[in-house]
Write a structure and sequence with these properties.
The complex is a heterodimer of chains A (110) and B (113). Chain A is mainly β and 110 residues long. Chain A has no helices and eleven strands. Chain A is globular. The N and C termini of chain A lie far apart (41 Å). In chain B, the strands form two sheets. In chain B, strands 2, 4, 5, 6, 9, 10 and 11 form a seven-stranded mixed beta sheet that branches. Classes of the chains: A mainly beta (110), B mainly beta (113). The interface between A and B is medium-sized, with 22 and 25 residues.
Chain lengths: 110, 113
């Protein structure tokens, strides 16, 4: 069964305190791994797509990496506006859907 | 501006009263999908559509119907809503090709009493 597990469930950081969020996955063939940001009461906002182990993508203070079993979202020197829930999802090869994890709630305090 | 719109954004209804949640996109995407989001369960796919008149079940289709008569619209229909369908619903579209990226609408919060 295709499955995505994210950890930690919640993370509290001080402004400027770098950290990483983890996404472990089991999938019957990976078409792609996706990271989204979700603010309260809003739809998920696309951040990154990763397709193969070793791939990395960056956007401002965020960097996503991928191995054969997990992905990390590294947050460098976060700011309060980075506070959100970060969702990880995989698209199994041959399927027309995303399988989501339950997310990591990030709170960055000034 | 590229957009996925949903209406209504909030809805409180009673058990058994048929309702429709609309989804519209202006990106000319062929693929559209509906998800529901519940605490502790994440987002789960309800139905998807690869193109006009082509729809298929996702992981949790029971109690829902969809139709795709036009490329831009993909309404979600609850013929006889029940309290276990209280949830946050998202419509999503995908650009296809090599990008694979799904874009989500703003969500519809549904409460069934």
């Amino acid at each position: 069964e295709d499955q995505v597990t994210q950890s930690p469930e919640a993370l509290r950081l001080q402004e400027g305190e770098s950290s990483s969020l983890n996404c472990s996955y089991t999938v019957s063939g990976l078409r792609g791994l996706f990271w989204y940001r979700q603010d309260p009461g809003k739809g998920p906002e696309f951040l990154f797509t990763l397709y193969s182990a070793g791939e990395e993508k960056e956007k401002e203070r965020l960097k996503a990496t991928l191995t054969k079993k997990e992905s990390f979202l590294h947050i460098t020197a976060p700011k309060p506006e980075d506070s959100a829930t970060y969702l990880c999802a995989v698209r199994p090869r041959g399927f027309q859907k995303l399988v989501f994890g339950t997310g990591t709630r990030l709170l960055v305090s000034p | 501006e590229a957009q996925v719109t949903q209406n209504p954004r909030y809805l409180i209804t009673v058990t058994g009263k048929k309702l429709t949640v609309t989804c519209s996109q202006n990106m000319n995407h062929e693929y559209m999908s509906w998800y529901r989001q519940d605490p502790g369960l994440g987002l789960r796919q309800i139905y998807y559509s690869m193109n006009v008149e082509v729809t298929d079940k996702g992981d949790v289709p029971e109690g829902y119907k969809v139709s795709r008569k036009e490329k831009r619209n993909f309404p979600l229909i609850l013929e006889s809503p029940s309290p276990n369908q209280t949830s946050l619903y998202f419509c999503a579209t995908r650009s296809g090709g090599s990008t694979d990226t799904q874009y989500f609408g703003p969500g519809t919060r549904l409460t069934v009493l």
